[in-house]
Amino acid sequence: MIIARDQRNLPTTELDLLELTNFPASWDTWMHDIFGYNPRLEESLLQRRDLLRIGSLSIAATALPGSLLAGRRAPRGTAKSVIMLWMAGGVTHIDSFDPKPDAPVEVRGVLTDQATSLAGVRFCETLPQLSQVAHKLSILRSYSHDSNDHLKSQAYTLSGRKVTNAQLFSEPNIGCIVSQQRGPSNGLPGYIAIPGITRPGPPPNNLFVSGWLGSEYLPYCLGGVPSEPDFTASDKLDDPPSELEDDLTPRSLALSEEMSQSRLQRRAGLRDQLDRTLRRLDNSQQLAALEGKYQGALRLLMTPSIRDAFDLNGESEGLRQQYGRTKLGGRCLMARRLVEAGARFVMVDYGYDSDYGNIWDNHNAPSQNHPPIQQMVKRGYHLAGMDRAFAALINDLDDRGLLDSTLVVFLTEFGRTPRINKAGGRDHWGAAGSLFFAGGGVKRGQVVGQTDGQAAEPITHPYTPADVAATMYSALGIDSRGWIMDIQDRPRQILEHGRAIGELF
């Protein structure tokens, strides 16, 4: 008998399990191939005879990894909500959170480093305000994986699942899984993207996908479809102003003058009658997904307090200035408002922009209209603006008593090359990067991991996008090795690899 080494084709009967006594591979190899078992983490957890004894119970294969192969219990945070600060394009780690002042000039460049509120920890001069709140952060300097490709790295980071080119759109975003597991909160969609317009390319690709979970769990994008999706175009201004703001009010919440609330309620009643008739005729998955979207949009329209959560006009001018009157500042402030209103998972999306082009992807290629990267970082829409907006968000959440219940994760797909290229830019570098976490049960004021003297690779344990995804799930109390059903009622493991980063908690 041949045992298929695939999680979707596991042995499920007593006879199948008894046949395992003759498998050709070693016990550890077989367990790794079939269940993702790692003997270093699960040592002495399960012996061969234990599995055969379990076989007499004819357990379901989908229960086996979660119940018996979980290893040490994942750390749990106190998060009720997540704000994911998604900076697509590859933020330079050397010019931000992991400066190397003793490295050669072709690595460190001309920027200086500065002290932070954490003793002995230094950031680049580009982050003066985040340096002041470093004691509220947990900085990860050993973020690492093996791809320098934007699309595959972004899909991996957004899902926690390593992908091929053929899987760019098949694996659901982390927010989609959270939405499926935890559902809407306080009338707000389970996964909100602010504004959800990033389209890496060329050609432009929408990676905010629900994949095998189905369209019911797509993110609720405030920005809709971008008017100019090809953000690699070369006709951007040489030095566009940083103080540009988005209109972040969802178009779906804008009632026309002739559409009153009472008229909307009457229309909803008629729609309900039609829906009941349709459901008797067709109970398909597609109809259920559309129905779920309709009901969610109707709740948003008919609940004034929810609609108000999307309106920044209620914020004071002083607070708006703290965040910065920039696109990123407004998006971070909107994220805080939505979490305060009860949102479960909010993604702040900032990386490919119709005014700024590829903000973080700073090769200094001729088509980008960028100055050398160490000048670029000082612009108000680049690291200087990120520093201001992120520090304001952390302080604002903390001042309102929301930080302990809100996990904030700064995430990008990879770092940039240690060596500055001949054009003055830095290229893709999956081997090393820096992230930070705050709130949601994460320990304050620490640095996890270390890179070598040129920030080229970790010299401590590396952590992958799968580990980061597992950390977010764990903070929300979701078992990342648990199983869920896809749109075709097939069991899928939430994450096939990765474990929560225990040092953070």
Account of the protein in words:
Helix content is 31%, strand content 11%. By secondary structure, it is of the alpha/beta class. It has 2 domains: 14-68, no CATH class; 81-250 and 310-504, Alkaline Phosphatase, subunit A. An 8-stranded mixed beta sheet has the order 6-5-7-1-10-13-4-14, sandwiched between helices. Helix 10 (261-281) runs antiparallel to helix 11 (285-302). The longest helix is centred in the middle third of the chain and has 21 residues, at 261-281. Residues 1-72 have low confidence and may be disordered.
Kindly state the mean pLDDT as a whole number?
Answer: 82
CATH class annotation of the largest domain = Alpha Beta
CATH topology of the largest domain: Alkaline Phosphatase, subunit A
Given helix and strand content, the structural type is alpha/beta
The number of distinct structural domains comes to: 2
Helix content: 25-40%
Number of strands: 16
CATH homologous superfamily label of the largest domain: Alkaline Phosphatase, subunit A
Strand order, sheet with most strands:
6-5-7-1-10-13-4-14
Total DSSP helices: 17
In CATH, the architecture of the largest domain is 3-Layer(aba) Sandwich
Strand content: 5-15%
Shape field: globular
Rg, alpha carbons: 24 Å
